[in-house]
Amino acid sequence: MEILIAKYAGFCFGVERAIKFVYDNINIKPLYTYGPIIHNRQVVDELNTKGCQVLENLDGITNGTVVIRSHGVSPDIYKEISNNGLQFIDATCPYVKRIHKIVNEHYDNGYKIIIIGSEKHPEVIGINGWCNNEGIIINTVDEAEKLTIEKETKLCIVAQTTFNQYNFDIIVEVLKNLGYNLYVFSTICSSTYERQKEALEISQKVDRMIIIGGKHSSNTQKLYCICKEQCENTYHIETIDDLPLKDFNKNDKIGITAGASTPKNIIEEVIITMSELLNENQTFAELLEQSLVKIQSGEVIKGKVIQVTPNEIYVNVGYKSDGILPKSEYTSDANLDLTSEFKEDDEIEVLILRVNDGEGQVLLSKRRIASKLGLQVIEKAYKSKENLSIKVSKAVKGGVISIFNEVSIFIPSSQLDDSFVDDLTKFVGQTIDVRIIEFDARRGRVIGSRRIILSEINAELKIKTLATLEEGKKVKGRVKRITKFGAFIDLGGMDGLLHITEISWARVNKPTDLLSVGQEIEVLVKQYDKENQKVSLSMKFEEENPWLDADSKFKKDTIIEGKVVRLADFGAFVEIEKGVDALLHVSQISNDHINKPSDILKVGDVITAKIMDLDIEKKRISISKKVLEEKEVVEEEVTEDTEA
Ligand code: F3S
């Protein structure tokens, strides 16, 4: 007395998902499904009583929301929905969507599309729409053998997701032998394949095989055909009422499976009845329990990738339902496309996050396995004070964040550098070394510091720098920070101050005119206070002092040209050489009376003047513009007299 229950009996992932979409939106009025949501009368009737109506077409429907079922539809239907002003909820199974994509891309690239499946099946009708209804539909070996198109034609082969794998393989073989150039895509849904394989295996071992599912359900019909070949006493029933119980006896070994659109309660009812009939000591729960692969939350297991979309990975974990690994549970990188990471049949290690038997869903996580390991690495680094090399992912208020092995490490701006950071974004994308200064795995709080590492490096450098500094020596440095009054120069582990008046022999309006942060410069150690470790620097090197040979360059009574660089009430300063300013007193500007220099001069004016007086030692030169005007007047008068 034994009952073998198929693990893969009942709703597949796509049907489960589609029904959930409908129930989640059942309060939207009016709500329609485009065709019955599943091939199951009981479910469709129940939804109908809740107000969800089945549409056979969209004629005259101009208001409401349409749920597109797991079979998917052609592009024309999307267009019609939009033209009719309707809303839609797309419950197309992601596996079917993938076929639409393959077909559409290959059609656009000049392939002839061959769809292996039943031409009347809504999924096949929908798929054909994605190649402009020009696909060739083949359902049998016979039809394949009769295919007559040019041998050079490139053929793209896809299959209805619920097609029999064995028959598909034969049809492909036939087409190959006919000499066609084939590009075959394995699009039979793994849940279908597993269901069929399991049904075949069970039916080989039992006396009677029960297939539960709608009479119009194609995948249930296929299950029936597969099992019937192995077990003469195979029954296709919609509910327990269809089963001829009188045929069964206590010694029978019974197998039970169900189509993808058979609700769990209907399967349960059959199992309970059969278990009561055959084995009064064994409960339904026990029987069901025996049939399932056992998985539980928190378990890490290996699975096989059966489908990848940009945002989800579907994994066969050996359980009755496929597992879903959403992108958010794979990575913290919202821009990552999962199709670039995995492909079908790849093995993947996952954490079972939730097994919801009520809805048959298995939620998986990969990220949490990585983050568990990441936390271990971080904790070790925290305890041993080792540095971690991390890449900064983004700037946030008050600091930056790095995702290290799926663990978020926060580096406050105060811990990011050894000086004030005004632009956090410049760190984004950079790989930096940090020391973990706070670690709380339970609260997920991990704080890193780069400043600590820089301080340690600087402390060592400082010792070396201090040992080599001496007044009058030229040293190399890097501009670290610029202020209004000068710049701080990193000399290696310590800073020296370069005052604005020491940046150039010439007058400097603001330090940023000549310096920029990060610039490498040579400076002179002007003053070095060893005790307080303070250094004043200068870029006014003596050999470049413009006053050095001023004696020979500037002579009294010579006429020079210069640029007005500054105006005061008592006169204007005129740069007669870079770093050498002469004073043009207000009384020496013009023969006409002026109140202040700015009455006739402005900064930037280039003027001609005469050197009236020099005191090279005191770095003073007086010039006059007025005396040249007097000379001009005299010359004009002489010219006029001569002409007269
Ligand atoms: Fe989708 Fe496979 Fe079901 S294609 S609808 S999960 S049978």
Walk me through this protein's architecture.
This protein is an alpha/beta fold and about 650 residues long. The protein folds into 6 domains: about 1-90, Rossmann fold (3-Layer(aba) Sandwich); about 95-190, 3-Layer(aba) Sandwich (Cobalt-precorrin-4 Transmethylase, domain 1), CATH 3.40.1010; about 295-365, OB fold (Dihydrolipoamide Acetyltransferase, E2P) (Beta Barrel); about 370-455, Nucleic acid-binding proteins (OB fold (Dihydrolipoamide Acetyltransferase, E2P), Beta Barrel); about 470-545, OB fold (Dihydrolipoamide Acetyltransferase, E2P); about 550-635, Nucleic acid-binding proteins (OB fold (Dihydrolipoamide Acetyltransferase, E2P)). Helices cover about 30% and strands about 30% of the residues. The chain has a 5-stranded mixed beta barrel with strand order 13-14-15-17-16. The N and C termini lie far apart (about 145 Å). The mean pLDDT is about 90. The structure holds FE3-S4 cluster. The site of FE3-S4 cluster has 14 residues, from helix 1, helix 4 and helix 8.
